[in-house]
From TrEMBL:
Family affiliation: Belongs to the LysR transcriptional regulatory family.
PANTHER family, A to Z: HCA OPERON TRANSCRIPTIONAL ACTIVATOR HCAR (PTHR30346:SF0), TRANSCRIPTIONAL DUAL REGULATOR HCAR-RELATED (PTHR30346)
Recorded GO CC terms: protein-DNA complex
Listed name of the protein: DNA-binding transcriptional LysR family regulator
Amino-acid biosynthesis is among the record's keywords: no
Species in which this protein is naturally found: Mesobacillus foraminis
Length: 303
């Protein structure tokens, strides 16, 4: 087993394709395939399943990747400490539900990360895909919520993916609405108050289950419904159609228009927002910094 083979495995897992990984590694696809085959034969496990749609990481491969990342990171630290070579390009990925505080923390990380080369990724995506991204090591951190309604299902998927949930904060439900909405002046709103207005929610694709909804109270029937795929569209519709969505009440006016406000929703519900990590992967220095920025950003926006 060589350090180069470990780097090959990490890049294949990141690219989700042997062909794409070979291009990034500047080697031929047959050479990369042979190197992976030799490594799998040496260690006695199958790291990747090859399919027509790309590669899938096996449970044994996921555990192996966790150790491989640690070895490669330690080797890079050793090289940087005792050689004059420049620092290698750093990689860091986050998958999240549509939370402004996740973006704010990501922006801060980039502003304060002083390197000439890096490759960072922030995916605002569907709930199931967040879990899948962290399970298959496409992202190191995933950000989502659980509550009494969905926690059994979400935690089942987390257990199957060998993931851990770490709570960031507990929130009472709020509605996001336009500052010009007739409800904007109320101290709180009730569910009947919202009936005349379009309800906006994030679509969840093939996993459009109530349990994977990004909004609580997903089982309620509403007369007017609009599904969107991104936060900018949702905010535009909040303003343009006097629509509403249900969230935590944490909103960043540094990144989002002050035309959007949060009003408490009078329901007996609690939202627990947190981040997920893979149990077999040691948290990287960048991830630790990002998590700290998350906590600081949330505190600032809750004040």
């Amino acid at each position: 087993m060589t350090l180069q083979q470990l780097k090959y495995v990490i890049e294949v897992a990141r690219s989700r394709s042997i062909n794409k990984a070979a291009q990034k590694l500047f080697i031929s696809q047959p050479s990369l395939s042979n190197a992976l085959k030799e490594l799998e034969e040496e260690i006695g496990i199958t790291i990747f399943f090859r399919t027509n749609k790309g590669i899938l990481i096996t449970p044994e491969g996921s555990e192996f990747l966790g150790y491989a990342r640690q070895v490669v990171e330690q080797a890079e630290l050793l090289e940087n400490r005792y050689t004059d070579t420049r620092s290698p390009q750093q990689n860091f990925s986050v998958s999240a539900q549509h939370y402004a505080f996740a973006v704010s923390a990501f922006v801060r990380l980039l502003k304060e990360y002083d390197r000439e080369e890096y490759e960072f990724s922030l995916r605002e995506t569907k709930t199931y895909e967040i879990i899948d991204d962290v399970t298959n090591l496409r992202s190191e951190i995933g950000i989502l919520y659980v509550n009494d309604f969905n926690k059994n299902v979400i935690h089942k998927f987390l257990r199957e993916g060998n993931l851990s949930f770490h709570e960031l904060f507990e929130a009472k439900p709020h509605v996001f609405i336009s500052s010009q909405n007739p409800l904007a002046k109320k101290d709180y709103v009730t569910l009947p108050d919202l009936d005349p207005y379009p309800y906006l929610s994030y679509e969840q694709g093939d996993y459009n289950s109530f349990y994977f909804s990004e909004e609580i109270l997903s089982t309620l029937s509403r007369p007017k419904n609009i599904r969107v795929s991104d936060r900018a569209t949702l905010f535009n519709l909040l303003i343009g159609l006097n629509g509403y969505t249900i969230s935590t009440g944490v909103i960043s006016h540094k990144l989002n228009s002050k035309d959007i406000i949060a009003v408490p929703l009078k329901v007996d519900e609690v939202i627990n927002v947190g981040y997920i990590t893979h149990k077999n992967v040691t948290t990287s220095p960048l991830a630790k910094i990002y998590i700290q920025y998350l906590k600081e950003t949330i505190l600032e926006e809750l004040q």
